[in-house]
Amino acid sequence: MKKISTFLLMLMISACIFTACKDDDPPLPDNTVQFEASEQGFGSDKNELEVKLKLARNVETASTLTIELQPSDVVYGTDFTTIPAAASNVITLTIPAGSSTASFKITKAQNIFLSGDESIKFTVKSAGSVLVIGKTASFNLKFSSIVSEGTKLTLSGLAGNEAGSSAGNSVFVDLSNNSQSPVLRKSWDLGFYAGDDFRVIINNTSSALVKVLAKNDLTKVTEADTIGVNLSLNQMAPSPEEFLMLDSYTGDITKTVIPAVSATEAENKVIILNRGTGGAIAARPWYKIRVLRNANGYTLQYARITETAFKTINVSKDALYNFNFVSLETGATPVEPKKNEWDIQWTYSVFKTSFGAGDVPYNFSDLVAINHLGGVKVAEVLTSAVTYDAYAESNIATTTFVSDKWTIGSGWRSTSPSGASLKTDRFYVIKDASGNVYKFKFISFHPNDGGTRGKPVIEYKLVKKA
């Protein structure tokens, strides 16, 4: 009996020890919900705007948010509405299980006059039992353009459950408006230049490649014309010759792989296009395309390689944009925001690297481009010269700004075999097309720095208002 009691006592002690150990495991931090930014502008040229909220992590069960509206000089139902609709100036949102975001839309009424002083304040009033309201609990929407004082943004690079190193979205950021525009990388195939020249770009963010043929009749191009044609990048052993199938990684509009579109129709050749499989994009059928000029811009002829008949799309030049985009599956499609409404693009894309014998094309994750065609300039600043916190308006005079598309590029982070990490010895200063100057850096991008690959966190602060 004594032996049994001793045995039971030992079991009880063991159970207590294991239970204590389990109780000592650190609990998960609060799952906060808050607005993506504290302020945003709703310019006169826009009729609809999406307001986004972010969570610290996915919710395990569906949760409900209530958002209170406080309009100033505008009336709900007369001047604006929301989706979902508000009831008694309260919007109710449901966040489905497995999601880490929420959003609602605001739509202006047709033909209304606004002075620009109007605004709406949105406040998270309740967040259910599994969420905690974060610091940015209020959001002020102004019915005019703004110049942000700066903020932190978590970029929405992930389109679904893909790996962060192959994030499905490109993300365009407008610093002065605290806004981001995620766009699926695979959602477009061709960009038609809206400037003075007649140029067409292919999709470097999907690793698209082309072969320019000698033929100028789309109906005369068949599968036989693809024999011996290799339209792929060898990521393991790339060669300089692969540059000949790509647009220049520099973004130089005079160095597109598709030749400038000639006013002489017969000079415009047929092109074979592999739409690209970069960043885990599934292989898609090759197309044959031909681009001509018309009175307002371009005429695109296109078909699959195996098809004899072809389709036609007219693409007008819209000078409000750098490019007007087309998907060969869905037709005209929005990609870049208007050229004065974005400053940087975070994306996966073809870039360059060297394995010791000169530059070769290579697919990179986490690349950052500036809107060089839209007039944005940038400078890299080493903290050995001046720290991010200390950088002020007085430093601008000695800062050299450049229009190089990839000045930020991949230089802000390291993905060496020893582990991915942020480079904390540098930051960037961005001058937008209006002349506003911001200092800019990354806060996180990888689990090694407490972040999430594909959802990098950026911070920027206004140094000088134009």
TrEMBL record:
Signal peptide: 1-20
The keyword Signal is annotated on this UniProt entry: yes
Parts forming coiled coils: none
Keyword set includes Signal: yes
CDD domains reported in the protein's UniProt record: HmuY
Keywords, ordered alphabetically: Signal
UniProt-listed Pfam families: HmuY
Name used for this protein in its record: HmuY protein
